[in-house]
Amino acid sequence: MDDVGSASSAGTREDTRTRILAAAADLLAEGGREAVSTRAVGAAAGVQAPTIYRLFGDKRGLLDALATYGITRYLSRKTEHEPGDDPVEDLRAGWDLHVGFGLANPELYALMYGDPHHGSTSPAAAAAFDILAGHIGRIARAGRLRVGEERAAQLVHAAGSGTTLVLIALPEEARDLRLSSLAREAVIAAIITDVPVPAATGPVGAAVALRAVLPETTALTPGERSLLSEWLDRIAADDAP
């Protein structure tokens, strides 16, 4: 009986938390960050201020949770798309989805990515980056990545979020979405080659490609695999133009 009561209590707590975050997200979309006061959120969610403090600590905690809530919504959209045959096209689609989400949810996006404190270390933000890293890993395994996987993922993330924030800052009638396309293709050109990397980029490309498939090898001991991984990472890091 106690277990049933505990489960019911936990479910009610989570329902209340979700209702508060949904109300906060609506207020954020309508009036920006300043509209997300504990009083306004409490009124919109039908709870008292002490409930918000108990669940989130303070307004900063509420905003942190709201950033995570926003990234979680974004992730639910990204995971709806099944991988295609071409990992580069999947990367393009992911970029466009990212920018589109930001333009459709500017205040939430600015909270998520405009302040490095918000979302940058949350589990949801890490999961979002993992999805991007997964795209990059597929490209590496296809032998089409000309730089190290980590650098490629960081570059795509930086360029994508920066482009989105720039577009958000412009009046809607002044936005030129070709900026996003140009930035996307510039990044792709910088990290991807159409020719298999061993032929196109020498030892760096070969190291990147081998590093991507190293976890699949069975001929090496764990120690040997770890040592080879370290060597390949050092070669792949020597990828400056």
Automatic annotation (TrEMBL):
Native source species: Actinoallomurus oryzae
DNA-binding region per Swiss-Prot/TrEMBL record: 37-56
Recorded superkingdom: Bacteria
InterPro entries in the cross-refs: Homeodomain-like_sf, HTH-type_TetR-like_transc_reg, HTH_TetR, Tet_transcr_reg_TetR-rel_C_sf
Residue ranges constituting the HTH tetR-type domain according to the UniProt record: 14-74
Keywords: DNA-binding, Transcription, Transcription regulation
One Pfam family of this chain: TetR_N
Descriptive protein name: TetR/AcrR family transcriptional regulator
Statement: the UniProt record of this protein carries the keyword Transmembrane: no
